[in-house]
Protein backbone atom coordinates (compact mmCIF):
# COMPACT_ATOMS: atom_id res chain seq x y z
CA UNK A 1 0.00 0.00 0.00
CA UNK A 2 1.15 3.53 -0.82
CA UNK A 3 -0.25 6.09 1.59
CA UNK A 4 0.06 9.68 2.76
CA UNK A 5 -0.46 11.10 6.24
CA UNK A 6 -1.06 14.87 6.41
CA UNK A 7 -0.12 16.75 9.58
CA UNK A 8 -2.40 18.98 11.66
CA UNK A 9 -4.53 21.08 9.29
CA UNK A 10 -4.77 24.59 10.76
CA UNK A 11 -7.51 26.98 9.66
CA UNK A 12 -8.41 28.08 6.16
CA UNK A 13 -4.81 28.18 4.91
CA UNK A 14 -4.35 24.55 5.90
CA UNK A 15 -7.62 23.48 4.36
CA UNK A 16 -6.88 25.25 1.08
CA UNK A 17 -3.42 23.79 0.58
CA UNK A 18 -4.85 20.31 1.15
CA UNK A 19 -8.03 20.57 -0.90
CA UNK A 20 -6.33 22.36 -3.82
CA UNK A 21 -3.40 19.95 -4.14
CA UNK A 22 -4.48 16.55 -2.90
CA UNK A 23 -5.87 15.23 -6.19
CA UNK A 24 -2.56 16.07 -7.90
CA UNK A 25 -0.55 14.46 -5.09
CA UNK A 26 -2.70 11.31 -5.08
CA UNK A 27 -2.23 10.95 -8.82
CA UNK A 28 1.50 11.69 -8.78
CA UNK A 29 2.26 9.00 -6.20
CA UNK A 30 -0.56 6.59 -7.11
CA UNK A 31 -1.73 6.65 -3.51
CA UNK A 32 -4.07 4.00 -2.14
CA UNK A 33 -5.01 5.83 1.07
CA UNK A 34 -4.80 9.30 2.64
CA UNK A 35 -5.12 10.12 6.35
CA UNK A 36 -5.12 13.66 7.77
CA UNK A 37 -5.16 15.12 11.25
CA UNK A 38 -7.70 17.95 11.14
CA UNK A 39 -8.37 18.83 14.77
CA UNK A 40 -7.39 22.48 14.13
CA UNK A 41 -9.18 22.88 10.81
CA UNK A 42 -12.12 24.98 12.08
CA UNK A 43 -10.51 28.38 12.74
CA UNK A 44 -7.76 26.56 14.62
CA UNK A 45 -10.04 24.84 17.10
CA UNK A 46 -11.78 21.54 16.33
CA UNK A 47 -13.54 20.42 13.17
CA UNK A 48 -17.07 20.96 11.89
CA UNK A 49 -19.11 18.43 9.96
CA UNK A 50 -19.03 20.67 6.89
CA UNK A 51 -15.23 20.86 6.97
CA UNK A 52 -15.03 17.11 7.54
CA UNK A 53 -17.02 16.40 4.39
CA UNK A 54 -15.07 19.00 2.41
CA UNK A 55 -11.82 17.24 3.24
CA UNK A 56 -13.31 13.83 2.44
CA UNK A 57 -14.58 15.14 -0.90
CA UNK A 58 -11.08 16.45 -1.72
CA UNK A 59 -9.54 12.98 -1.34
CA UNK A 60 -8.88 12.41 2.37
CA UNK A 61 -10.04 8.93 3.41
CA UNK A 62 -9.84 9.21 7.21
CA UNK A 63 -9.46 12.13 9.62
CA UNK A 64 -7.71 11.86 12.99
CA UNK A 65 -7.65 14.38 15.83
CA UNK A 66 -6.34 15.04 19.33
CA UNK A 67 -6.89 17.30 22.32
CA UNK A 68 -8.96 19.83 20.30
CA UNK A 69 -11.51 17.28 19.10
CA UNK A 70 -14.30 18.65 21.31
CA UNK A 71 -13.71 22.37 20.67
CA UNK A 72 -16.67 22.43 18.26
CA UNK A 73 -19.56 21.21 20.40
CA UNK A 74 -21.52 19.86 17.44
CA UNK A 75 -18.83 17.17 17.13
CA UNK A 76 -20.49 15.39 20.05
CA UNK A 77 -23.63 15.07 17.92
CA UNK A 78 -22.23 13.73 14.65
CA UNK A 79 -19.08 11.81 15.62
CA UNK A 80 -20.96 8.62 16.51
CA UNK A 81 -22.37 8.30 13.01
CA UNK A 82 -19.17 9.31 11.18
CA UNK A 83 -16.61 6.50 11.21
CA UNK A 84 -14.23 8.53 9.03
CA UNK A 85 -13.52 10.86 11.96
CA UNK A 86 -11.52 9.40 14.85
CA UNK A 87 -10.85 10.77 18.33
CA UNK A 88 -8.05 9.53 20.60
CA UNK A 89 -8.69 5.94 21.64
CA UNK A 90 -7.62 6.49 25.23
CA UNK A 91 -10.53 8.74 26.15
CA UNK A 92 -12.54 7.01 28.90
CA UNK A 93 -14.98 4.26 28.02
CA UNK A 94 -18.33 5.70 26.96
CA UNK A 95 -16.85 8.75 25.19
CA UNK A 96 -18.65 9.36 21.87
CA UNK A 97 -16.91 8.26 18.70
CA UNK A 98 -14.20 5.74 17.94
CA UNK A 99 -10.46 5.79 18.51
CA UNK A 100 -9.67 3.19 15.86
CA UNK A 101 -11.37 1.64 12.88
CA UNK A 102 -10.63 -0.93 10.18
CA UNK A 103 -11.08 0.56 6.71
CA UNK A 104 -11.07 -1.11 3.31
CA UNK A 105 -8.88 0.77 0.84
CA UNK A 106 -9.79 0.96 -2.86
CA UNK A 107 -7.00 -1.55 -3.60
CA UNK A 108 -8.82 -4.12 -1.45
CA UNK A 109 -6.40 -4.07 1.49
CA UNK A 110 -7.59 -3.42 5.03
CA UNK A 111 -5.93 -0.61 6.99
CA UNK A 112 -6.41 -0.18 10.72
CA UNK A 113 -6.09 3.49 11.69
CA UNK A 114 -5.46 4.15 15.38
CA UNK A 115 -5.65 7.61 16.97
CA UNK A 116 -4.01 7.79 20.40
CA UNK A 117 -2.96 10.68 22.66
CA UNK A 118 0.04 11.08 24.95
CA UNK A 119 -0.05 12.02 28.63
CA UNK A 120 3.19 13.98 29.16
CA UNK A 121 2.33 17.73 29.31
CA UNK A 122 -1.16 16.82 28.05
CA UNK A 123 -4.59 16.34 29.59
CA UNK A 124 -4.52 13.08 31.57
CA UNK A 125 -6.23 10.22 29.75
CA UNK A 126 -6.05 6.44 30.01
CA UNK A 127 -2.69 4.75 29.47
CA UNK A 128 -2.00 4.91 25.69
CA UNK A 129 0.38 1.93 25.79
CA UNK A 130 -2.20 -0.35 27.41
CA UNK A 131 -5.02 0.88 25.17
CA UNK A 132 -3.04 0.36 21.97
CA UNK A 133 -2.08 -3.15 23.11
CA UNK A 134 -5.78 -3.97 23.45
CA UNK A 135 -6.52 -2.66 19.94
CA UNK A 136 -3.62 -4.47 18.28
CA UNK A 137 -4.33 -7.74 20.10
CA UNK A 138 -7.73 -7.79 18.38
CA UNK A 139 -6.54 -6.45 15.01
CA UNK A 140 -3.04 -7.80 14.51
CA UNK A 141 -0.94 -7.14 11.44
CA UNK A 142 -1.38 -9.79 8.72
CA UNK A 143 -4.21 -11.40 10.67
CA UNK A 144 -7.02 -8.84 10.57
CA UNK A 145 -5.25 -5.80 9.13
CA UNK A 146 -2.91 -5.59 6.13
CA UNK A 147 -1.64 -2.22 7.36
CA UNK A 148 -1.76 -0.57 10.81
CA UNK A 149 -1.24 3.19 11.04
CA UNK A 150 -0.90 5.06 14.35
CA UNK A 151 -1.34 8.82 14.80
CA UNK A 152 0.27 9.47 18.20
CA UNK A 153 -0.86 12.95 19.24
CA UNK A 154 1.62 13.93 21.93
CA UNK A 155 3.84 16.75 23.18
CA UNK A 156 7.01 15.03 24.41
CA UNK A 157 9.36 13.52 21.85
CA UNK A 158 10.52 11.02 24.49
CA UNK A 159 6.98 9.66 24.81
CA UNK A 160 6.63 9.51 21.03
CA UNK A 161 9.93 7.65 20.65
CA UNK A 162 8.90 5.26 23.40
CA UNK A 163 5.69 4.49 21.53
CA UNK A 164 7.58 4.00 18.28
CA UNK A 165 9.97 1.47 19.79
CA UNK A 166 7.15 -0.18 21.75
CA UNK A 167 5.23 -0.83 18.53
CA UNK A 168 8.23 -1.55 16.28
CA UNK A 169 7.45 -4.65 14.21
CA UNK A 170 3.82 -4.74 15.34
CA UNK A 171 2.43 -1.83 13.29
CA UNK A 172 3.24 -0.34 9.91
CA UNK A 173 3.69 3.33 10.80
CA UNK A 174 3.84 5.55 13.90
CA UNK A 175 3.53 9.26 13.09
CA UNK A 176 3.61 11.97 15.72
CA UNK A 177 1.35 15.02 15.66
CA UNK A 178 0.46 17.98 17.93
CA UNK A 179 3.58 20.18 18.04
CA UNK A 180 3.02 21.61 14.53
CA UNK A 181 6.79 21.49 13.89
CA UNK A 182 8.12 18.94 11.36
CA UNK A 183 11.01 16.86 12.70
CA UNK A 184 13.90 15.49 10.63
CA UNK A 185 13.99 11.99 12.17
CA UNK A 186 11.80 10.07 9.69
CA UNK A 187 13.14 6.53 9.42
CA UNK A 188 12.32 2.85 9.40
CA UNK A 189 12.99 1.28 12.80
CA UNK A 190 14.98 -1.93 13.18
CA UNK A 191 11.93 -4.22 13.13
CA UNK A 192 10.33 -2.55 10.11
CA UNK A 193 7.95 0.10 11.49
CA UNK A 194 8.07 3.55 9.91
CA UNK A 195 8.48 6.41 12.38
CA UNK A 196 8.60 10.21 12.62
CA UNK A 197 8.33 12.24 15.83
CA UNK A 198 6.15 14.94 14.24
CA UNK A 199 4.98 15.41 10.67
CA UNK A 200 4.38 19.13 11.23
CA UNK A 201 1.27 21.14 10.42
CA UNK A 202 -0.49 22.00 7.20
CA UNK A 203 -1.06 25.73 7.34
CA UNK A 204 0.69 29.10 7.17
CA UNK A 205 4.23 28.68 8.57
CA UNK A 206 4.72 32.48 8.68
CA UNK A 207 3.03 32.24 12.06
CA UNK A 208 3.32 30.79 15.53
CA UNK A 209 2.05 27.21 15.21
CA UNK A 210 -0.33 28.31 12.48
CA UNK A 211 -1.73 31.30 14.36
CA UNK A 212 -1.31 35.03 13.74
CA UNK A 213 1.86 36.06 15.56
CA UNK A 214 0.54 39.05 17.52
CA UNK A 215 -1.59 37.38 20.22
CA UNK A 216 0.89 34.62 21.07
CA UNK A 217 3.73 37.16 21.20
CA UNK A 218 1.77 39.41 23.56
CA UNK A 219 0.99 36.45 25.79
CA UNK A 220 4.65 35.41 26.01
CA UNK A 221 5.89 38.97 26.58
CA UNK A 222 3.28 40.13 29.11
CA UNK A 223 2.13 36.84 30.60
CA UNK A 224 -1.44 38.04 30.13
CA UNK A 225 -3.84 36.24 27.75
CA UNK A 226 -4.59 38.61 24.89
CA UNK A 227 -7.69 37.09 23.39
CA UNK A 228 -8.46 34.13 21.18
CA UNK A 229 -5.71 33.03 18.85
CA UNK A 230 -6.57 33.61 15.18
CA UNK A 231 -5.22 31.35 12.42
CA UNK A 232 -2.70 33.02 10.10
CA UNK A 233 -4.11 33.59 6.65
CA UNK A 234 -1.03 33.46 4.42
CA UNK A 235 -0.23 30.77 1.87
CA UNK A 236 -0.26 27.33 3.43
CA UNK A 237 2.29 24.53 3.33
CA UNK A 238 1.14 20.91 3.18
CA UNK A 239 3.29 18.86 5.56
CA UNK A 240 3.08 15.11 5.93
CA UNK A 241 4.75 11.82 5.28
CA UNK A 242 4.52 9.32 2.44
CA UNK A 243 4.98 5.66 3.25
CA UNK A 244 4.83 2.38 1.38
CA UNK A 245 4.28 -1.06 2.90
CA UNK A 246 5.44 -4.54 1.89
CA UNK A 247 3.31 -7.69 1.86
CA UNK A 248 4.24 -8.14 5.53
CA UNK A 249 2.54 -4.83 6.35
CA UNK A 250 5.85 -3.31 7.44
CA UNK A 251 7.33 -0.27 5.73
CA UNK A 252 9.67 -0.44 2.74
CA UNK A 253 9.89 3.28 1.91
CA UNK A 254 9.23 6.53 3.73
CA UNK A 255 9.53 10.18 2.72
CA UNK A 256 8.52 13.44 4.47
CA UNK A 257 6.77 16.02 2.32
CA UNK A 258 6.57 19.83 2.61
CA UNK A 259 4.81 21.46 -0.32
CA UNK A 260 3.93 25.08 -0.95
CA UNK A 261 4.01 28.12 1.29
CA UNK A 262 7.27 29.52 2.68
CA UNK A 263 9.15 26.26 2.17
CA UNK A 264 8.06 25.81 -1.46
CA UNK A 265 9.89 22.47 -1.56
CA UNK A 266 9.72 20.31 -4.63
CA UNK A 267 7.63 17.17 -4.25
CA UNK A 268 10.04 14.36 -3.33
CA UNK A 269 10.75 11.32 -5.46
CA UNK A 270 8.95 8.34 -3.98
Give the topology, please.
Elements: E1 2-6, H1 11-19, H2 22-29, E2 33-37, H3 49-58, E3 62-64, H4 75-78, E4 100-104, E5 110-117, H5 128-138, E6 147-153, H6 157-167, E7 173-177, E8 187-188, E9 194-196, H7 214-222, E10 238-245, E11 251-259
Parallel strand pairs: 1-2, 2-3, 5-6, 6-7, 7-9
Antiparallel strand pairs: 1-10, 4-5, 8-9, 10-11
Strand order of the largest sheet: 4-5-6-7-9-8
CATH architecture: 4-Layer Sandwich
Structural class: alpha/beta
| Biggest β-sheet strands, sense, barrel | 6 strands, mixed
By CATH, the topology is Purple Acid Phosphatase, chain A, domain 2
Strand content: 15-25%
| Helix residue percentage | 10-25%
Number of helices: 7
The strand count comes to 11
Which term fits the overall shape? Answer: globular
Question: What is the level 1 CATH name?
Answer: Alpha Beta
Number of domains: 1
Mean pLDDT: 96
Please give the radius of gyration in angstroms: 17 Å
Order of helices and strands: EHHEHEHEEHEHEEEHEE
Low-confidence stretches: none
* CATH homologous superfamily designation: Metallo-dependent phosphatases
- End-to-end Cα distance: 13 Å
